Amino acid sequence: MSPANRWSWVEVNLGALRRNTQAFKRLLGRDTQMMCVVKADAYGHGAVPCAKTMHAAGASQFAVATVDEGVALREAGIEWPILILSEPPVDCVHTLVEHNLMPAVYTADFALALGEAAAAENRVARYHLAVDTGMTRIGVRRDDVVELRRTIDFHRGLECAGTLTHFATADVLDDWDFALQLNRFKEAVEALRGAGLDTGLVHCDNTPGTVLHPECHFDMCRVGVGLYGLHPAEVTRPRISLEPVMSVRGRVVRVIYPNVGDGVGYGLTWRVPRKNMQVATVPIGYADGLARELSNQMDVLVGGVRCRQVGNICMDQFMFAVDVNSARSYRPTRPVEYGDVVTIIGADGDERITAEEMAELRNTINYEVVCDFGMRLEKIYT
Ligand SMILES: *Cc1c(COP(=O)(O)O)cnc(C)c1O
Asked: Which residues belong to any copy of the Alanine racemase C-terminal domain (predicted)?
């Protein structure tokens, strides 16, 4: 199982994705909808097949980051509600109406332009009001929600389908800032209701919020990273069981026994220290999401055994060393051969390399690791 044209690929386990989606669905009450976040091509996993699997497993709505991501889902035939998690440039209001995409809205100018575009087609544009309760990213300031709604609500081309906020610290237990944001959000929702305005669906929980803060599931939860089998923080691990969905693999395209002292890769940053070592090449590089700062830091799996990556990672390829005489954990049972499968992320035998292990080496989070591998590698769905 590998693509015809290149010996490197991302494997997406749709069975694991379905089970993860069902696990989140079980956390939600009967009146709480699940909105699956499939931005950045479903965190690198492929938005269209993922959205179909999630819908079959109980999701009713979807969210993306950009208008183009929303249009791509519509062009693939996905007809379920789609929210854009930001307010895009005003010039794209016609595209939003044409493709029935709901933006997050927080300025009157954008909302009125959207209403005009919809009214011109005798349609009503649905939007969600984004409220900044303390993350200082996007949204209308919490004290201005009623005024904004009063400025735009006269428009026959507009309908408020939801009111949302986003937490900066939902992954921390007993956090004072989280409590503050939640209180401000509740106050904003109360203010809207007090003014006789329809809030639409009220929602604020992301993955860690959904797992750790069931008290604010409200009408809908926006679940992202957890669907892909990744924990947003250590504190969610004991609360929900998830399976990683992505594996990253390649095949050995060349292997030799270099001379002692030979250098490997740009800058020759690693040199062969002993006789009887192999150096093998795999066609995955930093343009595929294998960050260059992992050079000479990471392991790969071959035949269930860890091997050290060596030399600087190139744009499209990397090398690893097979040390037949090395410490036991790095010793393969046989020499590596042309065509052998190499695992960069995922399981092989009893060994596993996780997105968290790679994130730690890169000084980042698992979210970024999987997004990056989605950029260029062909995806294979299993
Ligand atoms: C990305 C995002 C989410 C999903 O976050 P996860 O931590 O991946 O669950 C939810 N809401 C907003 C506004 C987002 O930007």
From this structure: 245-382
Whether 330 sits among the annotated catalytic residues: the reply is no
Q: Structural domain of residue 270, as residue ranges?
A: 246-381
The CB of 224 under 6 Å from ligand 1? The reply is: yes
Question: What share of the chain in percent tops pLDDT 70?
Answer: 98
Q: What's the 3-state SS for the chain? A: CCCCCCCEEEEECHHHHHHHHHHHHHHCCCCCEEEEECHHHHHCCCHHHHHHHHHHCCCCEEEECCHHHHHHHHHCCCCCCEEECCCCCHHHHHHHHHHCCEEEECCHHHHHHHHHHHHHCCCCEEEEEEEECCCCCCCEEHHHHHHHHHHHCCCCCEEEEEEECCCCCCCCCCCHHHHHHHHHHHHHHHHHHHCCCCCCEEECCCHHHHHHCHHHCCCEEEECHHHHCCCCCHHHHHHCCCCCCEEEEEECCEEECCCCCCEECHHHCEECCCCCEEEEEECCCHHHCCCHHHCCCCEEEECCEEEEEECCCCCCCEEEEEECCCCHHHCCCCCCCCCCEEEEEEEECCEEECHHHHHHHHCCCHHHHHHHHCCCCEEEEC
Note if 266 is an active site residue: yes
Atom of ligand 1 nearest to the CA of 65: 15
Does 254 lie in the same domain as 211? no
The reply to whether 334 falls in a domain is yes
Question: 269 and 166 in one domain?
Answer: no
- Is 375 annotated in a binding site? The answer is no
Of 229, 264, 280, which one is at a domain's C-terminal end? 229
CATH number at residue 221: 3.20.20.10
Q: Is residue 144 part of a domain?
A: yes
Reported as a pLDDT band with limits 50, 70 and 90, residue 330 is: low
pLDDT in tens, 84-116: 999 999 999 999 999 999 999 999 999 999 999
Could you read off the pLDDT of 341-382 as tens digits, one per residue? 999 999 999 999 999 999 999 999 999 999 999 999 999 999
Residue 61 CB less than 6 A away from ligand 1: no
For the chain, what is the domain count? 2
30 in a known ligand binding site? no
Catalytic entry in 39, 127, 228, 367: 39
